[in-house]
Amino acid sequence: YQVALGAEAWAADFLVQDRQDSKTDHLGEIWAQPLPPLPVDGGIVEGRLEDQQGKFNLNNLVYGDGTTNQGAVEQLERILTALNLEPTWATAIADWVDQDTQPGFPNGAEDSVYTSQVHPHLAANAPITRVSEIMVLPEFGRERYERLKPFVTALPVGTPLNVCTAPGIVLDALSKDTREFGLNPEDLANRRSDACFPTLEEFRGAVGDQEWEDIKDSVTESSSYFGSSIWVTIGTTQFTMYSLLVRSSNGPVRSYLRSFGSE
To answer: Is 84 exposed, middle or buried (0-12, 13-18, 19+ CB in 10 A)?
Structure first.
């Protein structure tokens, strides 16, 4: 545990230095490179940082007042469709997060659905803290969860998406029509090896001025939220720690959330 905390602090130092060196966060920067196995007393430690703002934020399915953000619901529907998952799950997830108790039409789910389960409970009707919460959706299942998990996150409501690090599927979902950045992962990685791609200006040019007005406040080229994954192996024992690190605008980094063994 102490070794993992030390590695987390080291990762935080990388993020502090990065903010001093650059106002843009992209996958060509040093923080995005995995930490190779390093020796510690009796074993090794390794880890990685991942930009959580490069994913669709499930809590953005609502506005700050807890009402449904229909534009974000439609974005999630497009992500689900691209992953060959039923787009109807977007409304069900929005109902889990929003503050009201009225099921969204036509595929929502509120208390009446959850209280009828084998283990009855109420809908959260509040922002989620971990993506794994969506596994509570009736019949959603692990297979759907594992397919969706790499593309979604759980951050504070209103956190913008970093276009420099978002996968093509998530970028495409921002627009109702544009498929400009739906490159295969290898092509997209090549374009991002040493710079931000697409920049906000490039993305604006792709979607057009009218659609840009609808999404401009939900996108950015920099990030404040990063996921840290650290693995410590000493002898035959492995310890895993996941952290959500938050970097403030003036540089300091703190751990917002930690979990052990599983995210």
So the answer is: exposed
Selection from 159, 156, 163, 160 nearest residue 25 by Cα = 163
Neighbours of 209 (CB within 10 A): 9
Rounded distance between C-alpha atoms, residue 238 and residue 234, angstroms: 6
Q: What is the pLDDT of residue 208?
A: 85
The answer to whether residue 47 scores a pLDDT higher than 60 is yes
Residue from 256, 254, 232 nearest 130 by CA: 256
Q: Is the dihedral of CA 3, 224, 31, 130 positive or negative?
A: positive
In total, the chain counts a number of residues equal to 263
pLDDT tens digits for range 207-259: 888 889 999 999 999 999 999 999 999 999 999 999 999 999 877 899 999 99
Please report which helix (H) or strand (E) contains residue 230, including its range. strand 225-234
Contact yes or no for 43/232 (Cβ under 8 A): yes
**What is the C-alpha separation between 102 and 214, in angstroms, rounded?**
26
Structure tokens at 185: 């992962």
Per-residue model confidence (pLDDT) at position 109: 61
- pLDDT tens-digit readout, 6-25: 999 999 999 999 999 999 99
Q: Where are the alpha helices (DSSP H) in the chain?
A: 2-21, 70-82, 89-97, 111-114, 141-148, 168-173, 185-191, 200-207, 209-215
